[in-house]
Amino acid sequence: MYSGAQVALYPMSDDFVGVILGALSALDPYRPKFQIETDDLSTLIVGPPELLFPAMRDLFVAASSGGIHCVLSATVSRGCPGHPDDDICTPLGSVGSVSPLPERIISAKQAVAEAAVTGQDVAAHFSLYPLGEGQHMDEIYGCIDFLKESGVFDRPKNFCTKLRGDAGPVFATLSEAFLRFGAPEEGHVAMDMKISANSPSRAA
Amino acid sequence: MYSGAQVALYPMSDDFVGVILGALSALDPYRPKFQIETDDLSTLIVGPPELLFPAMRDLFVAASSGGIHCVLSATVSRGCPGHPDDDICTPLGSVGSVSPLPERIISAKQAVAEAAVTGQDVAAHFSLYPLGEGQHMDEIYGCIDFLKESGVFDRPKNFCTKLRGDAGPVFATLSEAFLRFGAPEEGHVAMDMKISANSPSRAA
Predict the structure, then answer these.
(1) With a threshold of 0.90, does the pTM exceed it?
(2) Separation CA B77–CA A180 (nearest Å)
(3) Which of A11, A59, B54, B150 is the most exposed place for a label (fewest CB within 10 A)?
(4) The domain A3-197: what is its CATH number?
């Protein structure tokens, strides 16, 4: 399998370079497990699918902790047929639609319930794209059933689903949606996600 | 059909609210043709698929023209089976994989060649997701053939394709990729795109 993410941090601040550089050390514990490449649009992280969301969570919490309005945007992918398998991406456990939907929903809820709280409130929206199979809406609807019981479900939006809560369970929910739904282990799934903290337009 | 986009502007500035509010009037000419809704994460525009990218282009050029580093991020969709057809989304012309790939590539190149230049240089990367059919990689590879001849192709990246050039042909290229590739007119296609201007990390 091949799995990774194109990740970008957008701090709404004149000091956006300082905020980004100050947050990068949060990735240090993950560096031995990842290939990392940066250009002027994003940073590519390639590694085990289970570590992608914890790494993005730690990066985002580090960038947001000073109170600056920040957004993290990422395109996450597993199983893209355009990329050869890479040992660095070997999953730590089982990935994909390997068991019936109801069992996966239970496992996903349990993983979110066990997620550590970070103290950083966030809002997020995301879209999950199961690619290359005919019944993609069944997997989407099964994932939505999980999201509604995740404890961080906010509301459906057009083309995406909105979450709100502590960064710990929110990133865990995104990770579970990505890992357990959409396609078999060797199938192709992509996710488009945005996470926001400290927004002044947050409704009360 | 149902078509629209969740759009967000990220100005990397202490005055991000002022930059966003100052750019919104660029959407005024499109307002009679769109339904528009805003929350703390994004603005939803719903309307004819051919007008989505011109509207985003005008919004982004207005936000970037002062020299602030800005990113526009959007999730664009047509034909999502979760949404009923809406008259406001009636296409202005033919949309989707209605003719053989080589013919669509020629039409797409011609549309980009005719795009007006805006004077704003941008970099972009995007992913096109044809949903609900088995041969999605054929449409992706056909679209890549078009991109390579678009005049704004920069390079392939993992999980996405990078463009660079004037905002006029870049947004036209994104629009053509969205409108002409991926699925028939009634099929489901999504695009995840990021456009950046005035980045200090732009390589020389």
Answers:
(1) yes
(2) 24
(3) B54
(4) 3.30.70.930
